[in-house]
Amino acid sequence: MMSDSTTAHSKERKSRMLIPHGTEVHDAACSTHAVLVESGLVAVLISVPGATRICVSLLGAGSVVTGDMKPAGSRWSFCAISSVSVALIPAAELRTAAYTDADLASRLRLQAGKQLAQSSIVAACNAQHVLAERTARWLTRFAHYLGPTLPLTHAFLAEMMGVRRAGVTQVLHTLQDAGIIQQDRGRIVVLDEARLQQNACACPAIIGGDESLVSPEMIDSAVSPERRGRAWIERELQARSNGIIGRDAGWIRREATLRMCRDMLSAREMVGLDA
After folding, report:
1. Is 263 within a domain?
2. Cβ count near 127 (within 10 Å)
3. Per the domain annotation, does 233 fall within a domain?
4. Strand 33-39 relative to strand 42-47: parallel, antiparallel, unpaired?
């Protein structure tokens, strides 16, 4: 359990934002902070010169966004699909947390892999699958996070898939005529998720599970005084020494130190935020 002083200090380090539905938050904060989604759903939209922007992934509660997610030469933004609460985590704090907590570092590494996989799947899907299949797949993704009532417009769905609005409207009317969805002003209600899934392409709806999610409490715990200093270093060296079979105690300690340094460098590269 964190002490009162640690909790108070963590509140001073962090700032929180409530993002209304439909609001876009651009990436300026990511140069100095990581963005942790605490509740709601965010769409990540990326554009490159000469092309319209498209949605490459969805971020639910427990997702962390860092500066290294931004590909060179691209512009990106976050669009709140629902009301979204985020915490802004200073870069130095997240680096320290990743250094000192192996489980947190693993979760951040899994998230980075998940983001890359999602972007790759979207790129392949856009090239190989017809609009009707892609539309149904995106609706299943949104329903996974938000339930059957989706606060989506035809215009937004068209923009995020990089297609004309008229094509999306035709697909949605077909799904509604089949009794799969119901459209109201500014929202789409999924009536038959099983049949919607049957109309979707074969791409995965969701990648990964709870094993990659992060909470503010995990970060606070990782940077608490109990997880820092000489005692922490000794615990980390001992943990790494246990898996080393070798010569004398001095050699084992040196090898454990090298492994610890490699892990710390890996955490820094993974977080992607420079001091």
Report:
1. yes
2. 7
3. yes
4. unpaired
CA distance 208 to 186: 30
Tell me the backbone φ, ψ of residue 257, rounded to 5 degrees.
Answer: -65, -40
Total-model pTM: 0.74
pLDDT per residue as tens digits for the range 142-179: 999 999 999 999 999 999 999 999 999 999 999 999 99
Per-residue pLDDT reduced to its tens digit, 81-102 = 999 998 888 877 888 788 778 7
Contacts of 141 (CB under 8 A, 6+ apart): 58, 205, 206
Q: Residue 18: its pLDDT value, please? A: 86
Count of domains observed in the chain: 1
Gyration radius of the chain's alpha carbons: 22
In a domain, 241, yes or no: yes
C-beta of residue 46 within 8 angstroms of C-beta of residue 71:
yes
Phi first, then psi, for residue 4 (nearest 5°) are -60, -40
The residue assigned the tokens 């509140």 is 11
CA–CA dist 15, 11 (Å, integer): 7
Partners of residue 36 on adjacent β-strands: 64, 87
